[in-house]
Amino acid sequence: MLKIALPNKGRLMEDARSALGDAGLEVRAAGDRALVASLGDEFTALFVRARDIPEFIADGAADAGITGWDCVAESGRVLESALDLGFGRCRLVVAVRRDSTTTVANLAEGTRVASAFPRLAAEFFAARGKRVHVVPVSGAAEVAPHLGIADVIVDLVSSGSTLRVNGLVEAETVLESSARLIRRPRAEMTEDAARSIDELAVALESVVRARGQRYLMANVPRAKLEEVRAVLPGLNGPTVVDVLGGAFVAVHAVVPQREVYRVVTRLRALGGEGILVTRIERLTP
Ligand code: AMP
Predict the structure, then answer these.
(1) What is the pLDDT of residue 285?
(2) Which of 27-36, 167-176, 210-219, 272-281 is the least confident region?
(3) Atom of ligand 1 minimally distant from the CA of 88
């Protein structure tokens, strides 16, 4: 059984479980607090801290896992990203107090930088020829400037509202991150294990592709088919099915969610009826 390390809490855990569920891999745990669960028939899920997942995989305790790219980069371990899952988007940024004139360019030597990402913070400033003193913290770096622990922080942001509430502003981006399916380097795996992880990546990729897409079915007048084709973007154009003996044909197409409103309105204007829009769990072209 291959072991897949998954985040044990928060949004990342929920989104990872939901993507795996849509891929047909249900997590079946003995209880809410179980650290191990079955994942489909082929995998075992291990629930660990998102930050520890790269170490687990690099050390061989798990074969692959889902975690933020920020965690992988901070770990400094050599791992492969098999797939960008698109959720958990955030940026690691340098932030300073709103009332300060400090920028990365004018940073004074010896400036104290608080961060839960000490490796990435140190690398970032070193690459710019800045000698700083990195103060490692395990979280809540945004309070450090107010406590006099540091002048600058390097922290994760998504909307930026936590920084704003704490009177801080972004100065520069260190790293863009999102959740990834990560794996040990292929050369370190048996052929069978590598193939299983490839299949997992293909399944999850089909889930990522389906996000934001809807499946639309409608009966439209045969005489209007050319105009209907112009309305429906479709993956490969709409599938057209004869409706027995009728003046109507059924069209099926994949439509981006943001275009559903416009497409349905246009189809109705063309005499379309019986219009059905459903979610898609997986999409493999
Ligand atoms: P945590 O549960 O706080 O340890 O966060 C785990 C991971 O969630 C982080 O390492 C990021 O990959 C991801 N994440 C996504 N958005 C955010 C955010 N706004 N703040 C913190 N972490 C985030």
Answers:
(1) 84
(2) 27-36
(3) 15
Residue with tokens 């380097």: 185
Query: Which residues have C-beta atoms less than 6 Å from ligand 1?
Result: 9-10, 12, 50-51, 68, 70-71, 88, 90, 156-158, 177
pLDDT at 236: 65
Indicate which residue's Cα is closest to atom 14 of ligand 1: 88
Q: How far is the CA of 228 from the centre of ligand 1 (A)?
A: 44
Q: Kindly give the distance from the C-alpha atom of residue 88 to the centroid of ligand 1, in angstroms, as a whole number.
A: 7
CA of 232 to the centre of ligand 1 (A): 38
Number of domains in the chain: 3
- What domain range includes position 76? 2-88+178-210
Distance (Å, rounded) from C-alpha 228 to C-alpha 270? 7
Give the domain-ending residue among 177, 194, 223: 177
Q: Specify the ligand 1 atom closest to the Cα of 177.
A: 12
The token duo for 206 is 């089909």
Task: Provide the pLDDT confidence category of residue 244 given band limits of 50, 70 and 90.
Answer: confident
Instruction: Find residue 115's DSSP bridge partners.
Output: 136, 154
The Cβ of residue 201 has, within 10 Å, a number of other Cβ atoms equal to 16
Of all protein residues, the one whose alpha carbon is nearest to atom 11 of ligand 1 is: 68
CA 218 remoteness from chain centre: 33
The CATH number linked to 104 is 3.40.190.10
**Nearest 5°: CA angle at 70, between 66 and 73?**
100
Do residue 60 and residue 182 come from a single domain? yes
User: How far does the centroid of ligand 1 lie from the alpha carbon of residue 158, in Å?
Assistant: 9
> 204 and 266 in one domain?
no
Mean pLDDT of the chain: 94
Q: What is the mean pLDDT of residues 8-36?
A: 93
At 26 the pLDDT is 92
**Residue of the CA atom closest to atom 7 of ligand 1:** 68
Report the alpha-carbon distance of residue 174 to residue 63 in Å, rounded: 28
The predicted model gives 190-212 an average pLDDT of 96
